[in-house]
Every structure is written in C-alpha cells, then in structure tokens.
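Progress against Task 2.4 (sequence-to-structure conversion) is shown through the following example record, which the project officer requested during the mid-term review.
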Amino acid sequence: MNNLKNFEIVQTKKNGSPSFKINGITVHSVYDPVSEALKWAAQVMERIASEGNPDKIIIFGLGAGYHVEALIKSLRGLEGQISKINIEAIEPSEESLNFIKNNFNVVKLLEDIKLTVLDSDSFGEISEISAKLELDKGNILLCGLPSYEKIFSDIYGLIYKLHGINQFFTPSSFRVLVVQPMYGGSSTIGNYMYSAFLNLGYDVKILDFSKFHDAYKYLGEFTPNEDHVNTLKQSLFNLMSEALLSFVFNDPPDLVVFMAQSPASERTLLKLRSMGIKTAYWFVEDFRTLTYWNTIAGNVDYFFTIQKDDFFEELKNIGANNYHYLPLACLPDFHKKITEINGEDKIRYGSDVSFAGAGYYNRKNVFAQLIDFNFKIWGNDWYVGLPLSLLIQEGGKRFTEEEAVKIYNYSKININLHSSMWHWDINPNGDFLNPRVYEILACGGFQLVDKRKYLEGVFEDGKDLVVFETVDDLRKKIKYYLENEEERQAIAFHGRETVVKNHTYESRIRRMMNIILLDSYEHIKSKLESRKENITVLLKATEGNKELHDLIMQFSDKKSLSIKDMVEQIKSGKGRLSKSEATILMLWAIKLKLVKLEGL
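Structure tokens generated for the chain above:
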C-alpha cells in the first residue's frame, strides 16, 4: 500500500462543497464535485440496468461522500422498481478516514452504508480481505472512485481481482491434477491434498506413481554397477514423465500440482507450459538435505516450500522469484479424535510415551536416554541394539496412516522430535514443521515437540503443545505431564481447536489457489470463459431440439456450462442414449483424439 503523507483541503468553484488531495492527487473535481458525483452515479445505474440488480454494491473510496450520496438518491428514486441493494464503501486507510471525518460531514452518510477500512495490517492477508468484504456471497457490483483507484492502486488492484475471481470462478469449473511420487512422506501429503481439493469442490484427479516403486527397487538387482543402476533409474523417471504427459493429453487440466520427488522433468514442465497449463510444485522437504530443488524451482510457475528465510535466499541466488511459503497441515476428516475407545487398540497402540517415525541419527541418540519410561517407538529404519531395540514395536515395520491416528490418540504423551542426520540430539536451529506437529494436535493428542523457529506465532507453548530444548528438559516434562493429567488434557484440547481452525489442508489449498488465481488472473479468466457458454444463450438456441434443451436444463442452476460437464452428466446416466447425447459423446472423443495428435 502507498504510504500516505500529505492531505490537503481544496476549495472548489461550488460553494460549500470542498474537495481534497492525497499526496498531490485531487480526489473530487475542483469545479463542481456534486455534478461530477451525479455523473458517476448515473454510470453506475447504467451498469445495473445492463448487468442486472446486484445484491450489494461495493464502492472503493469513501472520499468526501458526494458520489455515495448521489448513488443512494438514485437508488431511492427507483424504490419499488428494483429490489433493495445494500451499499458498502471501502476506505483503504485509517489515516485517510480520520482526515475525512475531521474535515467533512459524513456522520449521517455512514449511518446509511456499511464502511470497511482496510489498514496496512490486513493488506497482506488475502483471505482476511476477501472475508471482510464477503466477496464470495451473492452478486456484487464493484465501483471505484477514479482518483482512489490511482492513489491506492495496489489495494484496488487486489480487490478488483478478488472480486473478479469470486464472480467468474467456481472450484467445480477448475481442473486440477495432483501428481504423486513413487514413495515417501510427500506421497501421503499428496493424498491429503487430493482429499482437500475434493472437499472444496474442485474438479480434481490424482496420478499415483507408487505402482512403479517395486520396479524402481528391482533395478538394483540387474547390476552391481552404481552408474548403471542410476542410468536405469533415470530411464524409469523419464518413462513416468512420458506417462504423465499421456495422461494430460487425454484430458488437459488447468493446474498440475507436483508433490516433492514426483516425476517433473524439464521437458515435461516445458511441454505443460506450451499447452497453457499452470504448474505448481510443493517441496515438502528440508532444502538442506535434499537439494534437487535447484533443478525444479525455475521450471515451474509456482514453487511452494515449508521453509523460508535461508531457503528464500538460496532461491533468490538461482534467480527464482516464484516461491511462496506454505506450511504443512492436517486433514480433520482423517486426523481426528477417537470417541469410541477400542480396548484391543488401546492395549496395542497405547503407552505413557510414544514416537511414530523413522529412526534418524539424532532420534536414536535421544531415545536411548528415555528407556526407563513406558515408551513405544513405531516405524522403520531403527537398526539399534539393546536396550533401545526393546522399545521398537512390531519389528520396526512401517505403520499406516490409520495406525498413526490410533497411536496419537491412545498415547498419553506423543514425542515429536524432528529428524536430523547431522545433530547428535536436538537441532537448536530447526525451522520447518513436520506433518506430526499438525496431525498429533488434530487427533487430540498431547505433544512434546523440540523447539522450532516456525512454532512462534503459530502455536503457543504450554497452551497448544509443549516445547522441549534439551534431553534433560524432555525428561522433566515427560515426568511432569504424566503426573498432571488434567493439565495435559487441557493443552491437548486447546491444541486441537487451534489446528482445526487455522491449519487444515483446505486452508492451505485456499492460500495456494489465492496466489495462483491472483497472479494468473487474466490467463485463468480467459481460459475458463473461452470454454464455457452462457446457459441462457444455450437454452434459447436449443428451443427447437427438445433432447438437447432438456439436457442443458439440468445445468440451469449454474452460471455456465462446458462440453465436459455435459459428457460427465451423460456418462452418469442410465438407459439408452438419445441422438443428441450420442453426438456430444462423439464430439468429445474427437476432441480428445485431436489433443493427443497435437502432443505428438
């Protein structure tokens, strides 16, 4: 937002109707602000006549109020002819609003309208602005005071796009493809993302490459030569990339979201770009440990990370400018508190203290100092000797996500020690938050977590979870919270409320899509509008074809319609195809064939 410094009253040729300047730009006419306001209101009324009655009019810029008063009078003159329209004004600064109140008589005017002030604190929070203005509720007409559009160009541009998105965009009309890797934690996160996209109503598909994992492991059986094995693995990676392109050619999405370690070769990314498909990559790894990000970041449209600060500096150094911080989350439909206790599960998964995760170097060293507790360790890669090996559950096999939910629920204390291959015990400079932070809390579990930089301002120590800094500190807190069950449960309860309210995969998708839609506003708007027809026009044009007219009538509650929508509706039906339905299916098949040919 522009920093406001100078406010100046300007006398006009119209006695008793002063104007004013903000940073040298005149807000209202210096000749006759009232006549100017009447002309502005007349233009708004023309828009209403041509576009239909809105539920609400949002005026960007309160100014001295001349234009707002003129519009209110114009609308009152049509009472009985049009339905009631609410008026809301936006003043982009507390500073400018205070100046207006001190120099213009707007008290009565503010009683007739709703006023929303967007100060600098909320400017950076896209979701807060959209929620404040309720841009997703009803048909909204956005009108700007020209001088304000210029003075506050940044905030006006943002509101203009947010308004446009809410008017033309519906999740069900936007096609997303989530691309999974062969294995690893990001594959699980991809499944959660896919579920969250579905929950939000997106037209989403998932491409899961986990079936290739056995082949990937088997490649090492052919030769002991490491270079040869790496060549074979690269060939398999290229094959998966080609499989991805084949999938996309068949039914092109609007956005492809790659999870970390999924097959995203440079050729694949460039091909997707040439097809007008936006790409996003969510790097849910520690950038210091896995460094392949430097070959990916520059070739995707949007690069999302679970680290910032040092990572952002590294991304800047390679010339990337498309990066955004997007922390992990929980999926409340899955990560939830078990309300009906299962006795067998409680015995199997319950304990005073538990840990669920792989056996990294630092974890082995820390947990060897906790063997005197009733402690269960779940997960793989725990190649340790006695006595720590006695704590490893079920032979150190991998646990399922469903089992993780049971562990988090039935354990009195869930330890969450972030992985490290470099530190002896606890990393004093840890930044990213692993999935366990959110998942344990969402399950209603009590969590002891090592100190992490990004916990600050997100979760409150002692209220949502409890932080430990050293092994001695961890031991003391285990003993304390085992003895203080009521306090432990209160913290777990509050932590669950916090994470479910603020840190779900649905909220992360909203954040991701806000960034993408605002940045690619014109591209996405044009693309969606170009493949859709106005349903009213279609109904009018098909009045002579009852079969086709009746099919389109099934979508009469939607703003627009695509051939793909019609194809899916036909495929979901039963009985014999009508002539019109068969023709639409044939045209769709021809379209898909042509898309494949273009991709060759």
